[in-house]
Amino acid sequence: MLRLGPLRLHWSLLLGAALFCALTPRPLLFVGYAAVLLAHVAGHAFAVLGSRLSVSGVLVHALGGELVGSGEATPLRRSAMAAAGVGAQLLLLVGAYAFRDWLAPDLVDALVRRNGIVLLLNLLPVRPLDGALAWRLPGRIAAARRQRHLHEPQPTRQVQREVSDLLAKIRGSTKVR
């Protein structure tokens, strides 16, 4: 592993670049590979915003990257961070496809087709790939909503109770004696 300050480059980057570029040394394919990795890591970093987690570095490897830092992420936050990495790759893919007429063919190939392959690989539900956590996100969001709902005061029940009390008072005071 090569360390450049907070940036850690894993040896698998060389293998990933070779596979991503299909062993054809075309510069724009390498630029596209770097853009895919950057987008992936930026997606993870975006998901950390607003949390109590602190990022002290980035580990970049063949299929993306991981944030290095401190703090304990909740399962929901971990799933959101995993999904954000591949989500950023998807945004890059869609943007490159939309502007494909203005980009060089090798760059379009890297940012659309090859990025799509890496994105799909990353979505496999196998650790340590992002898919292992990202696919759990919908269930974890639903569980968090249920948990929050249990701890919130129930305004409907409170209103029903108050209306029942009011009706009981009204009925009690208008009874014929």
How are the elements arranged and paired?
Blueprint: E1 2-4, E2 7-9, H1 12-20, H2 27-48, E3 54-61, E4 64-70, H3 75-98, H4 105-122, H5 131-134, H6 137-151, H7 155-173
Parallel strand pairs: 2-3
Antiparallel strand pairs: 1-2, 3-4
Helix pairs in contact: 2-3, 2-4, 3-4, 3-6
Outline of the structure:
With 177 residues, the chain is α+β, with helices and mostly antiparallel strands. The chain has one domain (2-135). The chain has seven helices and four strands, in the order ββααββααααα.
Give the structural class.
alpha+beta
Order of helices and strands: EEHHEEHHHHH
Query: Percent of residues in helical segments?
Result: 55-70%
Strand order of the largest sheet: 1-2-3-4
SS element count, helices: 7
Q: Quote the average pLDDT.
A: 83
Q: Globular, elongated, flat, extended or rod-shaped: what is the shape? A: elongated
CA-atom Rg in angstroms: 25 Å
Question: What's the structural domain tally?
Answer: 1
* Low-confidence residue ranges: none
Strand fraction: 5-15%
- End-to-end CA span: 91 Å
Number of strands: 4
The biggest beta sheet is recorded as: 4 strands, mixed
Description:
The mean pLDDT is 83. This protein starts with a strand and ends with a helix. It is 63% helix and 12% strand. The protein contains 7 helices and 4 strands. The chain has helices at 12-20, 27-48, 75-98, 105-122, 131-134, 137-151, 155-173, and strands spanning 2-4, 7-9, 54-61, 64-70. Strand 1 (2-4) and strand 2 form a beta hairpin. It is elongated. It has one domain (2-135). Strands 1-2-3-4 form a 4-stranded mixed beta sheet. Helix 3 (75-98) packs antiparallel against helix 4 (105-122). The protein has 177 residues and is of the alpha+beta class.
